[in-house]
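Figure S7 source data.
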Amino acid sequence: MLIGLTGTPGTGKTSVSRLLEKRRGWKVIYLNDLIKEEHLYTEIDEERNAVVADIELIRSRLTGIINEMEKESTNGIVILESHLAHHITDIAIVLRAYPPELKKRLEMRGYSEEKIKENAEAEAIDLILAEAFEWCDRVYEVNTTGRTAEETAGDVERIIDHLLSGKEEELQEYTPGSLDWIDSVP
Ligand SMILES: Nc1ncnc2c1ncn2[C@@H]1O[C@H](COP(=O)(O)OP(=O)(O)O)[C@@H](O)[C@H]1O
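Tokens for the predicted adenosine-5'-diphosphate complex:
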């Protein structure tokens, strides 16, 4: 089963993925690294120090990788980790962080003022969540605010375990739409 773990940069996708790899033996594809390593992009945006991902190229490259990894992974779970994951997967778990807290996390990571502002504003308007609704069949939302990476990993683990056991009806607490942070960016 392929699960997209998405969310604005700084919400904790990488931290959570590393914890779940260790704890559960689930395979993780760190998509942003793969995009750069294998040039799965159309151009480099020098100004924003970012690349413009080629989603079609990524999709075709991932097909073979995912089939292989599902065979090797515990329970056949493959996590696609990236703020782009929801463009690829049918199931998306969207990590959220209250923008003022997100800003602090990104400051700790040495992001520029401009990139911090851009990401905090994207988080405030639910940008990734809205995209996930557009692209995915099933979307779950995990609020990481005021919690540790360990606790968030526990939330993601609980969602995946319920998907594996077919008990999605017990995942109401992760139903998207309860967060309204539109006025949270100073
Ligand atoms: N509840 C939480 N869940 C995940 N990460 C958290 C949480 N609280 C604080 N953090 C911290 O926020 C940062 C998230 O960074 P990272 O995992 O690289 O995010 P992303 O991969 O989404 O850009 C890490 O330093 C992590 O320790």
